[in-house]
Amino acid sequence: MAKSETIVRLPLRVQPATEFRSTLVCASQGSLKAHGYFDTYAKSLAPELATDLLTLVPGEWKPVKLALAHYLACDALPMPSAEREQLGSEVGRRLKESLVSTMARLSRGAGATPWLLVENLDKLNSHTWRGGAFSATREGPKDAIVEWHGQPCAVSHHFVVGYLGFVSGLMELFCRKAFVRLLPGRSDETRIAYAVSWA
């Protein structure tokens, strides 16, 4: 395909994320426990926020500063990038009871593809984050570029790399195999840009 096609248009004004659903960090903490990192993680938390993070329960809206403190503590863990991506994929699997799994379950028989996910990024985002917005372009029959704007956690390496695994896991509800890679030149402290393709 010679020319990009806009699939999701970025709004003229993006409100940065201000709150997150605690289920997301609870799922991330569950993966840290499963991989033996939780004790080190707990010691790495900012002292003034440690109690709030260690007593999180799923299903509540919390200020984004807690999510940022969680992911910055994860940055301090001695973990290779491949494992961070694996943890992100596990978080995606832990959250499969969300709208994404419902969409996948209902649409498989209709021959849905990952484009259904790409086209509904903002709707899906609203289940986990309050604020932020997506843009997406079609680069080929099975290729897209997606940008997540207004995301304060983009400063965290663990969040950014883990999110690649998270996206791969969600895409694979719709296809055999997904490939997601970061686009550093289009990413910054509040934006994550990545290329997605699938088979």
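Next protein, fold it too.
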Amino acid sequence: MSAELELRLRGAVRGMRSAVIAYSGGVDSALVAAIAHQELGARALAVTGVSASLADGELEAAVALAAQIGIAHQTIQTHEFDNESYRANPINRCFFCKEELFGALAALARERGFEAVADGTNADDGAAPLDVRPGRAAAAAFGVRSPLAEAGLAKREVRALARTLELPVWDKPAAPCLSSRIPHGARVEYDALRRVDLAERYLRARGFSIVRVRHYGTTAQIEVPLADIARLRSQQSVLERSFAEVGYERVEIDARGYRTGSLNEGAAVTLAD
């Protein structure tokens, strides 16, 4: 992590003068929140959107981390599940989620007198072929700033600076919303999200820190890093019994391993057009 990149980031944050930060508690938004607190003080507010797509434990962790950083923090309830376009789960589902979130944050910023809304998008986001991010269109519509990307910080630099600042999430795996486990075109239902959440919590309790449970009706398809597949397979009979308790009749282990954006593999060309 170069000193120049850190200076760029601090300059980008200072240039906002005051800001509401879209804060999930992941490493990207936590770093923006920490720098904003250092550079803007009371003129920075971290805000976490809460809905059924938030995995269990994530809100509590975000609250605790905001307290450690020292930044003012509040939560808002978001209502993307009231939007049929979101529930239908098209390939641009994330647009409708971010439209709801950024619209609420922009309104809050106007009401409270903050000049900017900022998020944790970094310079890597959207760079990989399957890393499609329809939510960026919503960010652009509301004029959301992305200081990490503006300063040129990729994920590696984000983690390095977060570690230097002693943020405990510097090496936290990505934790996208639970709706990202539902294949595009399959309706997002509350029960499906509950089942995914329970299944992933069970796997993490068994020592699989990086895991995705892709939801295909009564089938759960599990992704873990390639190095963990053999250990996961050795537990398959136990997994099948446990997953049956939350409604999965079949458990599959993806031999290709965990990879970002796997549910976009069939949609990447369409999204790129």
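About the second fold: Strands lie at 19-22, 44-50, 72-77, 116-118, 212-216, 219-223, 250-253.
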